[in-house]
Automatic annotation (TrEMBL):
Any coiled-coil regions, as ranges: none
Species the sequence originates in: Nonlabens ponticola
Family from the record: Belongs to the aconitase/IPM isomerase family.
Pathway given in the UniProt record: Carbohydrate metabolism; tricarboxylic acid cycle; isocitrate from oxaloacetate: step 2/2
Gene3D superfamilies in alphabetical order: Aconitase, Domain 2, Aconitase, domain 3, Aconitase, domain 4
E.C. code: 4.2.1.3
Protein name: Aconitate hydratase A
Length: 755
């Protein structure tokens, strides 16, 4: 039986009436995305036809999910909100703080020892405030959510950018910063700019070496890392119905890599099968009753150009396998063309590791398709030329895969079976085969491949592919291997070819697990004590940020002008820094250390205008803060791309950065800056980025008149005394300006709850 079945029934009871009202109000057929959005309005039934990409709207999500790295800061904030219990169903999942090294048993034991303080904190906070707790080793948050909590037509938010994975079960599921989650936990609405809509029509059926992963790898190549910003991607067509539910989840998961608000699919038979296979027939039965409301109106899919802002069509019959990368997930290359491209760009051809799993591709079907390739290597006596690492998506997946002999196939190839956790995908990988900055290549079935992402090495060239393609390339040991045309030499000196992969959508004997790893909270948590040691270097209670004084900001100095791509990985690295996610001051020592300084093209080396010396970014900024000098960060396009981690906003705020000026923001990061009481603005003229000099001083001369839809004026004073005056735009509405005035959204929540 499903978790929260009563809540789901209530959603389904109100959905038809709310959708009908919205259809009448808009005077047109509705997409699935619109049906879910309009049926989850904070005020209930639709009263206004919202303008896509413009209107800020208050929503009422059905549930929240948090992973351990982000949950720490989210729950530290919630503890200040003055509430006894979370207002909506919420879960915490311990999946980020487990380092992959020797294998599941040893790695999990080490994580429980090293991060025991954090796990105990999360468990006790969850118990106190009515939050479901998934123990370390239970699984990766998004796979666990898909197996247990996602439901067609629902809306959820999660403190991880890949929350969008739940779109595979027909949800509008959105990654947010912890402050957004705190709002909803505290019983307040969740605000989102009403998204634009991108329709992706899928025809035909994937076949041969092509997989669902190749759909999103192709889409990423079309849209690029920012082409989906501010939009929901809705997949439809016969090709969509031909995909498995977990395949749909894979596609939605990587929608985060094109900047999309989320992605989703209409309810169909594959979702029904998956719900019933995961012991949620009660949800499938309820969904079947209102099935027409859990997908778009027929007219929409018949004439998509009339209802979507952009339409992309992909024929799955013709789609070929891709590998995307290196260093960015939108550099899409068909497998057969990769060899020539690699040689031209001097990418290492030798592949050192093949990594299978992560929240993107760790389902039962994924493992069986990869195992079908691995089994051929065993039977055909082919010795893999690369190391193998496997991360199952959940304990249920791992237990079932072990029962069915799937994991043994990988073990027969000397693969390392890591814990049911993120591991290398989030930089939690103690990689023993390389040291320093050696240039090398890895292939993986993850979603992101930014520089340093997997192992901290800026010269690791990471390529993203399907689990079966990763298996094939790892077996060959060559990046330019094309399993559809190329032969391998086995240990007997014979030429052999790998046959097409085969997979099993759902386990024939059903899913099975002895201990899923879930801990339910007590009914009354008022007597549960949450302890945070004063001398802890892992956890730190929060001190509220100071409110705005209402005046203009004058005399601000440039901290750094970031050159090129500046993701949340550059602003607040993961990997070894994950252990400080609950200690704002300690983790702030990684603030912007990965950003490239535009003036010397180096990382973590900026000039101080106090003494003229060059030093690390955090050290330089701490000196500015100690001297009472406000600072500004300048960035390029899509600043804050990537993870939802709000630390990338909280760290600069904590250290005394007042303003971020960029050409454009990634959606989640812009919201995170607003929530933390920072000023995030964009150049009205992008060319003004080039005006910024290393020793500049910034005067925000009309900030005292801060108002919606009104650009701000910035006077830039150069070292030689010359000045440039520019305009910067912002997207703050009245409510968000209140956050800024109070110093943060949390300050406002606390004030309102105390009233």
């Amino acid at each position: 039986m499903a978790f929260d079945i009563d809540m789901i029934k209530k959603v389904y009871e109100t959905m038809p009436e709310r959708v009908d009202k919205a259809r009448e109000l808009l005077g047109k057929p509705l997409t699935l995305s619109e049906k879910i959005l309009y049926s989850h309005l904070w005020d209930g039934k639709a009263q206004t036809a919202f303008t896509r990409g413009k209107d800020y709207v208050d929503f009422a999500p059905d549930r929240i999910a948090c992973q351990d790295a982000t949950a720490q800061m989210a729950l530290l904030q919630f503890m200040q909100a003055g509430k006894d219990k979370v207002a909506v169903p919420t879960t915490v999942h311990c999946d980020h703080l487990i380092q992959a090294k020797q294998g599941a048993a040893k790695d999990l034991a080490r994580a429980n020892d090293v991060s025991n303080e954090v796990f105990d904190f999360l468990g006790s906070v969850s118990n106190k405030y009515g939050i479901g707790f998934w123990k370390p080793g239970a699984g990766i948050i998004h796979q666990v959510v898909l197996e247990n909590y996602a439901f067609p037509g629902g809306m959820m938010i999660g403190t991880d950018s890949h929350t969008v994975n739940a779109g595979g079960l027909g949800m509008v599921a959105v990654g947010v910063g912890g402050a957004d989650a705190v709002d909803v936990m505290a019983g307040m609405p969740w605000e989102l700019k009403f998204p634009k809509l991108i329709g992706v029509k899928l025809t035909g059926k994937i076949n041969g070496w092509t997989s669902a992963k190749d759909v999103i790898l192709k889409v990423a190549g079309i849209l690029t890392v920012k082409g989906g910003t501010g939009a929901i991607i809705e997949y439809f067509g016969d090709g969509a119905k031909n995909l498995s539910c977990t395949g749909k989840g894979t596609i939605c998961n990587m929608g985060a890599e094109v900047g999309a608000t989320t992605s989703t699919f209409g309810y169909d038979e594959s979702m029904s099968r998956y719900l019933r296979a995961t012991d949620r027939s009660d949800i499938a039965d309820e969904a079947d009753k209102i099935a027409e409301y859990l997908t778009a109106d027929d007219e929409v899919y018949a004439n998509p150009e009339q209802y979507f802002d952009q339409v992309i069509e992909i024929n799955l019959d013709e789609l070929v396998p891709h590998l995307n990368g290196p260093f960015t997930p939108d550099l899409a290359t068909p497998v057969g063309q990769l060899g020539e491209k690699a040689k031209k760009n001097d990418w290492p051809i030798k592949v050192d590791w093949g990594l299978i799993g992560s929240c993107t591709n760790s389902s039962y079907e994924d493992l069986t398709r990869a195992a079908s390739i691995a089994e051929q290597a065993v039977k055909k006596n082919i010795k893999p030329k690369s190391d193998f690492g496997i991360n199952p998506g959940s304990e249920q997946i791992r237990f079932t895969a072990e029962r069915d002999g799937i994991l043994k196939i990988f073990e027969d190839l000397d693969a390392t079976i890591f814990t049911n956790a993120c591991g290398p995908c989030i930089g939690q990988w103690d990689r023993s085969d390389l040291k320093g900055d050696e240039k090398n290549t890895i292939v993986h079935s993850f979603n992101r491949n930014f520089s340093k992402r997997a192992d901290g090495n800026p010269n690791t060239h990471a390529f993203v592919g399907s689990p079966e393609m990763v298996a094939a390339i790892a077996i060959s040991g060559k990046l330019d291997f094309n399993p559809m045309t190329d032969k391998l030499i086995n240990e007997d000196g014979e030429e052999v070819m790998l046959e097409e992969p085969s997979g099993i959508e759902l386990p024939p004997k059903g899913f099975e697990v002895e201990d899923a790893g879930f801990v339910a909270p007590v009914e009354d948590g008022s007597h549960v004590e949450v302890k945070v040691a004063e001398d802890s270097d892992r956890l730190q209670l929060l001190t509220p940020f100071e409110p705005w004084d209402g005046g203009n900001l004058m005399g601000a100095k440039l901290l750094i002008k970031a050159f090129g791509k500046c993701t949340t990985d550059h602003i607040s690295m993961a990997g070894p820094w994950l252990k400080y996610r609950g200690h704002l001051d300690n983790i702030s020592n990684n603030c912007l250390i990965g950003a490239v300084n535009a003036y010397n093209k180096q990382t973590n080396l900026v000039k101080s205008q106090i003494d003229g010396e060059y030093d690390a970014v955090p050290k330089t900024q701490r000196a500015y803060k100690a001297a009472g000098i406000p600072t500004v960060v300048v960035g390029d396009h899509n600043y804050g791309e990537g993870s939802s981690r709000e630390h990338a906003a909280m760290e600069p705020r904590h250290l005394g950065v007042y303003v971020v000026i960029v050409k454009s923001f990634a959606r989640i990061h812009e919201t995170n800056l607003k929530k933390q009481g920072m000023l995030g603005v964009t150049f009205a003229n992008e060319a003004d980025y080039d005006l910024i000099q290393e020793d500049d001083t910034f005067n925000f001369v009309d900030l005292e008149n801060f108002a919606p839809d009104t650009p701000l004026t910035v006077e830039i004073v150069h070292k030689d005394g010359s000045k440039d005056t520019i305009k910067v735009n912002h997207t703050y509405n009245d409510a968000q300006i209140k956050w800024y005035r109070k110093g943060s959204a949390l300050n406002l929540i606390k004030e309102e709850n105390a009233a």
